[in-house]
Amino acid sequence: MDVALLCQVDQYLPDRVAYFRKLLPSLRPRGRLVLVNYLEFRAADLAAAHTLGLKVIDEWQPSPGFFMMVLTP
């Protein structure tokens, strides 16, 4: 995959790190993981990304209360 988009689902995952770890091999070289969610889940997503060594290459707020984060391995 070139891009894996998770939109308001990662808060339901029992273990973000384990899920992202299983998802990453599906990405092509230079592939991206894109997360869209409520701001209250941003810290948990950043912690999971940090644990896996993912880099935030872009981030913005498409609307109040939400964030969109683009990660790369």
Structure overview:
There is one protein chain. The protein has 73 residues and is an alpha+beta fold. It has helices at 16-23, 42-52; strands at residues 3-7, 32-38, 55-60, 66-72. The chain has a single domain (3-72), classed as Rossmann fold. Helix content is 26%, strand content 34%. A four-stranded mixed beta sheet has the order 1-2-4-3, with helices on one face. Helix 1 links the parallel strand 1 (3-7) and strand 2. It is globular and about 30 Å long. The protein starts with a strand and ends with a strand.
Helix content: 25-40%
- Which class of secondary structure composition applies to the elements? alpha+beta
Number of helices: 2
Low-pLDDT stretches are: none
Mean pLDDT across residues: 95
Indicate the CATH architecture.
3-Layer(aba) Sandwich
- CATH homologous superfamily label: Vaccinia Virus protein VP39
The largest sheet, given as strand count, sense and whether it forms a barrel, is: 4 strands, mixed
Beta-strand fraction estimate: 25-35%
Would you kindly provide a brief summary of this structure?
This protein has 73 residues and is an alpha+beta fold. It has 2 helices and 4 strands; from the N terminus they run βαβαββ.
Features:
single chain; 73 residues; alpha+beta; Rossmann fold; four-stranded mixed β-sheet; 2 helices
